Amino acid sequence: MGPNGAGKSTLGYTLMGNPKYHVTGGEILFQGKDITDEAADKRAKEGIFLSFQNPVEVPGITLARFIREGYFTRHLARERVAYKARRDALAASLRAAFAPDELTLTGLHTGLHLLARLKNAPPDAALHAAAKAQGVALSLLSDYDLTGGEQDFSGTFVLGYGSLSETSFPEAGETLRKVCTAAREASVTV
User: Are strands 33-34 and 103-106 parallel, antiparallel or unpaired?
Assistant: First the structure.
């Protein structure tokens, strides 16, 4: 989010590999892999895509009428209830799978993601490797860190729940716990 001209679209186009945009410094890492020089179609196959928000068209209803007559407000209220139920189901699954002081959940009342910080976390590289070995798509907050490491985001998961099916929530916490256990075991040195 940001004001017009802040670079949101430019960043999106660059991450997606639009040939009109060029990376002049640094690299683009996705799930631990450097994709800076990959073509857009390869990035898409790996799960990166660009989509702009477009309102759903309701035939016969103008946007002004949609807002004025309260359709938009009712739509938002329904969506908030649905997303709250998803968020609560994911949080319950995580709390059931981890010890009370092992995982700290934050961002529970914002957006369609929450953050889960693992206490005494193994290295992020081990978490990524364990997730990949188990076929789990994993996002860590450190993957998005643009501060150059000024803050320690290691062991903090970015968990999106907006598009997950409700049937996947009961197993989500256990799946994440298995990834963490495998990462810890793999990172232990003798």
Answer: unpaired
Note if the pTM is more than 0.70: no
Task: Kindly report the backbone phi and psi dihedral angles of residue 10, in degrees, each rounded to the nearest multiple of 5, phi listed first.
Answer: -60, -45
In degrees, rounded to 5, the angle at the alpha carbon of residue 63 between the alpha carbons of residues 58 and 65 is: 95
How far, in Å, CA of 66 to CA of 147, rounded?
Answer: 41
In this structure, what are the phi and psi dihedrals at residue 156, rounded to the nearest 5 degrees? -110, 115
94-111 pLDDT tens trace? 999 999 999 999 887 777
Angle between helices 71-97 and 169-187 (to 10 degrees): 40
Q: Can you list the residues of the chain whose pLDDT is less than 70?
A: 1-2, 51-58, 189-190
